[in-house]
Design goal:
Length: 98
């Protein structure tokens, strides 16, 4: 077993988490800056930054009830064997907590 690839994976995982955190903080600052300037788009040498609207839906109680029924039906079919599944290999990595 080549431990080097495991070490490399762990280092990359840590770097990705750090970079994602930094990116999310910058994203908030950029959105605040664009809101203050009331600009929707900024073109720079590195690329184009655009403020886009994203819809967040809120549903009625009826939809929530249907969703619960759907989840219950899925669980029933899983327990009775009516539903089928396929197992695929997946890698789970857990960092050591200090």
């Amino acid at each position: 077993m080549n431990e080097q690839i495991f070490d490399e994976y762990a280092v990359l995982d840590a770097q990705i988490k750090l970079l994602t955190s930094q990116k999310d903080k910058l994203k908030v600052k950029i959105l605040e800056d664009l809101a203050e300037s009331e600009e929707k788009t900024v073109n720079l040498a590195v690329g184009k930054f655009t403020v886009a609207s994203v819809k967040t839906w809120t549903y009625t109680d009826k939809v929530a009830e249907l969703e619960e029924e759907f989840k219950a039906q899925k669980a029933k079919e899983q327990s009775t064997g009516e539903a089928t599944y396929e197992e695929k290999p997946s890698l789970r990595f857990t960092t050591i907590k200090f």
